[in-house]
Design a protein that fits this description.
alpha+beta; three-stranded antiparallel β-sheet; 1 helix; 7 strands; rod-shaped
Length: about 140
């Protein structure tokens, strides 16, 4: 009877230890899990210059966190990198201004960014070079 009781105690102890280890592993995988429900995130601030790797700060109640983020270096749009838009095709070139434009409709706002519903983008018209089959000027 004593051997049976000892086996039961050892089995219970093993189960308790493995259960606690599984719980610790699950909590560790959450990377700073929080009970906070609604985080408010700021813009991505590059570490140097105006693009590249940086950080974004978030707050929720009394908690503050920082996340790594990245702003592509070719991103110079005035509406920011956290507002994602679906754009129409480029319009015709305006001969007076030398620009062509297109509009975009908001598709997604990342990190609770405040975004405009529609935006306009403009760029220089490309200067046409010779077309295929056109002879070179000599």
């Amino acid at each position: 009877m004593d051997l049976r009781a000892l086996c039961v105690i050892v089995l219970v102890a093993i189960l308790a230890v493995s259960s606690q280890a599984a719980k610790n592993k699950k909590d560790k995988g959450k990377k700073g899990a929080s009970d906070c429900g609604e985080w408010k995130w700021g813009s991505c601030i590059p570490n140097s210059k105006d693009c590249g790797v940086g950080t974004r700060e978030g707050t929720c109640e009394e908690e503050t966190r920082k996340l790594k983020c990245k702003i592509p270096c070719n991103w110079k749009k005035p509406f920011g990198a956290d507002c994602k838009y679906k754009f129409e095709i480029w319009g015709e070139c305006n001969a007076e201004t030398g620009l062509k434009s297109r509009s975009g409709t908001l598709k997604k706002a990342l990190y609770n960014a405040v975004c405009e519903q529609t935006v306009q983008a403009a760029k220089q018209c490309s200067i046409k070079t010779k077309t295929k089959g056109e002879p070179d000027d000599q």
